[in-house]
Amino acid sequence: MLDARDISVTLGRKQVLHGAGLSAKPGAMTVIVGPNGSGKTTLLRAITGDLASRGTVTLDGQDMRALAPHALAERRAVLPQASVLAFPFTVHEVVRLGLTGRIALRPDAAHLPTRALERVGLAGYGARFFQELSGGEQARAQLARVLLQVWEPVQDGTPRWLFLDEPVAALDIGHQLQVMHLAQRFARAGGGVIAVMHDLNLTAMFSDRVVLMLDGRVLAQGAVQDVLTDQNLSRAYGCRLRVSSPPAQGATYILPQAAEIA
Amino acid sequence: MVALPWGRSAGRDATPDRVTGDRSGRARVTILALMVFVMLAAIASLGTGAAGVSLSDVLMKWISGEELTLRERVVLFDIRLPRLLTGMLVGASLAVSGAVMQGLFRNPLADPGIVGVGAGAGLGAVLAIVLGAFLPPAILAVAGMHLVPLAAFFGGWATTLILYRVSTRAGRTSVATMLLAGIALGALSGALTGILVYIADDQQLRDLTFWGLGSLAGASWAKLSAAAPIMVLALLVAPMLARALNGLALGEGAAAHLGIAVQRMKNLAILTVAAATGAAVAVSGGIGFIGIVVPHLLRLVMGPDHRFLLPAAALLGAGLLLLADIISRLIIAPAELPIGIVTAVLGGPVFLWILLRRRGIVDM
User: Fold this and answer.
1) Residue of chain A nearest B250, judged by CA positions
2) Which residues of chain A are within 8 Å of residue B106 when distances are taken between CB atoms?
3) Which of A143, B277, B312, B328 is most deeply buried (CB count within 10 A of its CB)?
4) SS3 B170
5) Which of B21, B259, B304 sits opposite A73 (nearest CB)?
6) Percent of chain B with pLDDT over 90
7) Measured between alpha carbons, how far is A206 from A191 in angstroms, rounded to an integer?
């Protein structure tokens, strides 16, 4: 159980988070959505410790900020938004950096980077230079590294966590679905996933819990159908939106057109 | 590159590294080859010198149990051996501090010699040489021979700290700022050193002159024993930084998420660079280009993984400096050229070649 309470962040002179909070369970996918500048990435970065913040973040009742870096690395992995690599590492070498802590002691550890690459659809890319990949391929290679760090979603009965900052932003629709399925599978296997997303339809399709943000505060959080409502979304995004359901399956999807027609 | 039968590129199966992208097998083979290279260079260095003592004569005498002449013993054990060990340690220290600094700054152009750390260490050493005479005898007795290398270490440390503060913001280093700040710091250290030269007496001036050019000619057991502990310590600490430097290549945030205590490791890296550069400068003056050329060549051959790059840099740095020292003794024999001139003549063009190949780095 991950609990972030009353998180406030000030960047420069501007307070960008005002007592935001969320709770997330292992075995479920929690997605943070909201308009540009609403503070979703800031909230994630406050939780992962990338940003200094006020408030409390606890992981199974333990203060997350009090954990030593290596202990924390055993519990969770973080996928950053696009990053610049300093030296000409091969894709295999980048992924291998995720081989840290107890996972590195496994007898099959040398083969795991290759398997992680297969999992993100980059089989055979190991010998390419990371810097020569396209943006989308780089994003998936980084995902392979992050997946490798928490290879087993549950280790010794303790669930592990994936924090994903806009994991599908650079991807085409096929790879978007692939990455979302990977994250979902991690959650179904008992791990916890917290992702920041822009795409409301992917959010509706894959998340178990949605956190909707506006102006540095959490506007609503809970199950998809309770949070992604006409009223909430129209207010958060400042435009008319209508939530619809395809009649057969009953899943939620969002079409701006639907609001224009009405 | 073909996978060698004994290269363990991917654990149990012998898939070549150009398929898997795992260059650790190639790196191990490179390190073994470099060990042989250093040994050969060391033997050549022991056999080279103006005195005309040949290594084969000495070996023959040793095998047949004949006594060495006093001259042979002095040349070998009191002149060439300390010079050999000093050259190896200085070469290893300069190459490793270059590799560590490049990892810390996340930039292949960071080099203690280029960005003023060497000059800062030089200023520290000159301060110790010139002003040391004014210190109370009690302090001199305690500090003794270690005063110059220690002062060089502090000079290098201060310069590295200032450089890092100036050129790095939120974990991102601006290359232009780093190089320009390095020029400014180097010029400042040079100017202060110049002022000190004016108040130096004749004996001190002689000490200072060998310095500016960089030379191993002054190597002695006394100087070596003062600086060697610092260099050996830095060389032993450097491999502990490997994982952190690999993580830093992804950025500070990503490194922290991989479980690296980033701030502590950065401080340790800065101390290591200052210790290795400071002690090397203290015994041999300004020997340039080893710190930038060696890691760059190695990255071309075996990739940038610091777990292998750091030991390989130590070996290649040691071997190359021994070769440069041999050239410096042979080229105008029986006189000798300061080794700094040799490394500059060889390293300068290589550095320009690196710049031409990777102009994009500077435009960042």
Assistant:
1) A85
2) 86-87
3) B277
4) coil
5) B259
6) 32
7) 15
Domain-by-domain residue ranges, chain B?
A: 34-43+68-362
From residue B122, give the alpha-carbon distance in Å to each of B118, B163, B193, B206: 6, 16, 8, 15
Structure tokens at B15: 């898939």
Which one of A87, A100, A142, A163 would you mutate to disrupt binding with B, by most B Cβ within 10 Å of its Cβ? A87
Residue predicted with more confidence, B48 or A25: A25
| pLDDT per residue as tens digits for the range B244-293 | 999 999 988 899 999 999 888 988 998 899 889 988 988 888 788 899 99
pLDDT at B5: 41
Chain B segment 87-106 residues within 8 A of A by beta carbon are 103, 106
Unique residue bearing structure tokens 């005898």: B137
Dihedral, CA atoms, A149, A151, A156, A162, nearest 10 degrees?
Answer: 70
Domain B34-43+68-362 has CATH 1.10.3470.10: yes
Which residues are CB-neighbours of B264 under 8 A, at least 6 positions away?
Answer: none
In CATH, which superfamily holds the domain spanning A2-83+155-228? P-loop containing nucleotide triphosphate hydrolases (3.40.50.300)
Range list of H helices, chain B: 17-20, 24-46, 55-63, 70-73, 81-105, 117-131, 137-143, 147-167, 175-199, 202-213, 221-237, 242-248, 252-257, 262-284, 290-302, 306-330, 339-357, 359-362
CA-based nearest residue in chain B for residue A101: B259
Answer whether B87's CB lies under 8 Å from B263's CB: no
| Residue A77 to chain B, least CA–CA distance (Å) | 6
> How many beta carbons lie within 10 A of that of residue B78, not counting itself?
12
Whether residue B10 is predicted with pLDDT greater than 50 in this model: the reply is no
pLDDT average, residue stretch A1-23: 92
pLDDT band per the 50, 70, 90 thresholds, residue A183: very high
pLDDT band per the 50, 70, 90 thresholds, residue B173: low
Question: Is B11–A110 a contact, with Cβ atoms under 8 angstroms apart?
Answer: yes
Cβ distance B25 to B18 under 8 Å? no
Give the Cβ contact number of residue A151 at 10 Å: 19
Report ipTM (2 d.p.): 0.90
What residues does each domain of chain A span?
2-83+155-228
Please provide the average confidence, as pLDDT, over all residues in chain A.
Answer: 90
- Interacting residues of A157 by C-beta distance below 8 A, sequence separation 6+: none
Rounded CA separation B53/B37 (Å): 23
Predicted local confidence at residue B93, as pLDDT: 96
Q: Is the CB of B247 less than 8 angstroms away from the CB of A77?
A: no
